[in-house]
Amino acid sequence: MEDGVATRGRRGGGGAARRAERTSGKITQAGFITRNIPDYEPLTEEALEIIEANAEVILEEVGVCFPENEAALALWREAGADVDGDRVRLPRGLARNLCKTAPSQFTQIARNPERNVEIGGRNLVLAPVYGPPFVRDAGGRRYATMADFEKFVRLGHMSKWLHHSGGTVCEPTDVAVNKRHYDMLMAHMTLTDKPFMGSVTEPSRARDSIEMCDILFGGLNDRTAMVSLININSPLTFDSIMMGALEEYSRANQACIISPFIVGGAMAPVSVIGTLTQVLAEVMVGVAYSQLIRKGAPVIFGAFVTSIDMNSGAPTFGTPEAAQITYGAGQLARRMGLPYRSAGSFNGSKLPDAQAAYETANSLNAGLLAGVNFMLHACGWLEGGLVADFEKFVMDADQLGTLHKMAEGIAIDENAQAMGAIHEVGPGGHYLGCAHTQANFKQAFWKTDLFDYKPFETWADEGERDTRALASVRIEKMLANYEQPYLDPAVREALMDYVARKKASMPDAFM
Amino acid sequence: MEDGVATRGRRGGGGAARRAERTSGKITQAGFITRNIPDYEPLTEEALEIIEANAEVILEEVGVCFPENEAALALWREAGADVDGDRVRLPRGLARNLCKTAPSQFTQIARNPERNVEIGGRNLVLAPVYGPPFVRDAGGRRYATMADFEKFVRLGHMSKWLHHSGGTVCEPTDVAVNKRHYDMLMAHMTLTDKPFMGSVTEPSRARDSIEMCDILFGGLNDRTAMVSLININSPLTFDSIMMGALEEYSRANQACIISPFIVGGAMAPVSVIGTLTQVLAEVMVGVAYSQLIRKGAPVIFGAFVTSIDMNSGAPTFGTPEAAQITYGAGQLARRMGLPYRSAGSFNGSKLPDAQAAYETANSLNAGLLAGVNFMLHACGWLEGGLVADFEKFVMDADQLGTLHKMAEGIAIDENAQAMGAIHEVGPGGHYLGCAHTQANFKQAFWKTDLFDYKPFETWADEGERDTRALASVRIEKMLANYEQPYLDPAVREALMDYVARKKASMPDAFM
Fold it and tell me: Hey, is the C-beta of B414 within 8 angstroms of any chain A C-beta?
C-alpha cells in the first residue's frame, strides 16, 4: 500500500481494482500515512527510566483488579502473578516480558484490499469519532439515530483523508441496546469498503462481530479484520465486560486497543509523569493479558488522556498537558515495540467554532508528531465527546490532509532544490511563470477542499459564510456524490439473514 | 527574568517594582517563555548542508540587488564583494563570515524593567499582529483608525501571555502617512510599559523612533530599546527605504528582524527546500549588511513564508508547507547562532471562525516547536493579514498560554512522580480528594480565561454563545479593567513636545 493519494482504479489491475473502479466512480482516496519525519520526543532517557521503573513498582506493590473474572485470575496465577481476591500483583518484569509476543505491526484487512491498513511502524491510520450519544448539525443538537449513523458512514466513505470507517461513530439510540451493534456493523460492511471496528459492549457482541466478519470475508482464517476499543477502567481496574470482549477478539486474532480512559486529576494523578506511569502500568497489564489469551494477538498501546477543569470538574481538551502526555506515551509505546493509539479531534466546545478548532488542531498536531499509529476520533468530535457533529466531521476530515502532507517530509532531490529556478528568476523576478513552478505547482502545496480563500468582495457577495456554513454545503455535496461500493449480493444476503435470525432470538433491551 | 507567571510587584523590591505595583493594580503578567523542551528538527544534516551550500552558490552566481543605494554598494565593494551596477555577488563564505559578529542573544529593554525581554537562546517572546489596514470586531470590517490602534495597545497591555506591545498593530489610516508613526509610538510609550517596535517606512522615521526612545529612556546609550521589522523584497532584493531604516537602527544598536517576505510559488520556488535556500541566502546578506554598518548590532533571522493557492493566487496560511519551512528555518538560524523570528496567528479566513483557529493553531504549534525566539503576529491576525481582529486578538492571546505551559517541559521530581498518590488511591479509587491532588491542582493544568467548559444546560441558558461572542465579552472586561501604567509626567511632556514640534514641521502626506 503506498502513501499519498491515488484515484481508485488507477492502482494495479487485479479484480479488486476493477471492482473498485466499476463501483465507486470518481472518489479519490489517500492511502494511510507513512511518516518520513522524525517523532517529537520531549521525555529524556532519565524520565523514561523513572516512569518504567515506577510502573513496575505499581504493578508489584499496588497491583491491578480483575473483578468478577475467575478465568482471568486463574491465568494470572498460572503466569506467576500474586493473586489476592480480585487483586493481581505482578512481580517485576512479568508484564513487560509477556508483552514481547505482541506484534509491533499488523495488517487490518478491508473488504476492498486497497483499503487494507498497516497499523504500527511509521504508519498513521485515521478513524472517525467514536461513542457520542448526541449528534449536531445546522439544525441543532439531538439524540443520535441509526439514520445519523449511516449518514456518518457515508461521509466517512467519501472523506479522502480518512482511512478507516471507525466503530460507534455515534450511538444509534433509536435501536435497542442489545441489537444496535448488528445495524452498526451492517452499515460499516455495506455502505463503505474501508476497515472498521467491532462491538465491545458485551462479549457476545464481540462474538457476533467476529461471526459477521466471517461471513463478509468468506472465512477470517486468523486474518485481522477488526480493531476494537478496550477501555481500562482507570485507575488499575479491568472490568469483566471489556475483558470478555478482549478475550473473544484476542482468541480470534482480532486487534484490540488497550486504552486507559483517564481524566487527569480524577482517574490519575494531576501530574504528567504520574499519569504516564499509571498509563504504562495499565497498558502493560492489558497487553500482557491479551498475550495470555493468545500469544501474538495484535494489540495497540492506547492512551486517552484529558485534563480536568478544576473549577467545574469538566474535562478539557487540546491542552498542553494532554499534548505532553501524548508525546510521552508515544515514546513509551515505541520502547515496548507496540503500535500506538492517541490524539484526535478533541475539544470541549458546544459548537464547531474557534474553540473547537484550536483545541482540535492542538491535538491533531501533537498526534502526528507523537508517532501515533492509530488515531481514533480523528474527525467529528464535539463537546467533550458527547456530540458527533456533522459539520465538524467534514472540517476535521479536511484538516487531516495537512497531516498527510506534513508526514511526507521534505524532499531534497535536485528538482526540490530548484536551483535552476532561482538562477532563472534572479533578483526582483517572479516565480509564477517559471518552468520549475509550472512543472511542480500541482503537487507543491496541500489544498483544502473546504476553507475559503476567495477575494473579500466575492466572499461578501456569497453571504459572508463562516466555516460552519461552508461545511454544511460540503456535507450535502458529499452525500449527493455518494456511491455505495459494490458488495456481492450473496454476501449481503447472508449478512442480512444472520442479523435477522439473531435479532429474532432476543427481546429488545434498552439498558 | 524568570519564566512563568508572576503578579506584578511581587517580584524584586526595586523602584521599578514598587512603581509597577503602585500603578498597575492587579494585572497578572507572564514572563517571556524559556523553553525546557527540545526543538523539532525535521531536516537531516544532509539536507542542511545542501541548503547551506546552495545558498552560497546563489550569493556567488546570482547575487542580490541593492537598488538606489550607493553607500551600500560601496560598503559591499570594500568588504570584498563583486559589485556590478546594483547587483552584488558575494564570494563563498563572505556573508556567513560577516554574520559572525551578530549576537546570538540580546536584551530589549522596556521602560518597566520587569518587562525587559531576552531575545535568542531558548527564549520565546510574543508580540501582536503587525500591519493590517483594516480592523474587524462584532460590528464588521472597516479601515483602522488611531482609536483602534490605542484599543489594541490597551488590550495588549492587559494580555497576560503577551510579552511585547508590537509595532503597527493596525495602520491608523485616519492619520497622515508621514505622521502616524509619532502617534503609534506615543501609544506604545504611554499606554503600556511593555517593549515595542520602531518605524521602518522611511529612514527619517527610524531616526524619529530612536529620538523618541532617547527621551523615553533618558538617553539610550547603546541599549537596545526597539526591535523593528526589515522586510526583504524577495527574491534577492534589498530596497533602499528598508535598508535606510536598517542602517539607522543598526548604527544606534537597535535590533532589526531581517525577514524575507515570501509567498511561496511567487517570490520563491514552489518547493520547501528551494524556499529555505533562498531565505537563507537573503537573511545572510541582510545580517551581513547590518554588521557592515555596525559590528555586533543585534539582528534576528526572520522567515515570513506562506504558500499560495494556485487556483486563486491567494496566499494561504497554517499549511503543512509553511510548518515545514518554519521548522527548517529554525534549524538554519540555530546553525548561524542567530535569534529566530517566524510563525504567528496566521490564517486566511475572513472571520474569527474555525478556519481561522485551525490555521492559527497549526502555526502557533509549529512556532513553539521550531524554536522561534521572537513571534510577531502572535495574536489578532485575520484575512491573510489584511485585518486586525479584536475578537481574534483575545482568542489568540488566550491560546498563547498553552505555549507557556508546553514550554515548561515535564517535571520529573518526586512530587511529579506522584507514587504516593498512586499507592494511596489504588485500583478503582478516585484522585480528586487525595493529598497530592489537593497540593498540586492549582498549578497542574493550564487554564483558559476564555473558552467554555460549562454544562450544556448552563451554556444554553446563557444564549449558546460561541467563541466570538465570549471574546466580545472579554474585550469589554479587559478594557474596563485597564489601568494606564505610570509614566513620569516630565517624560510624557517631553515626548508630546517632540511630537508636536515634528508634526508642525511638515505638511500632511497621505501617500
Answer: no
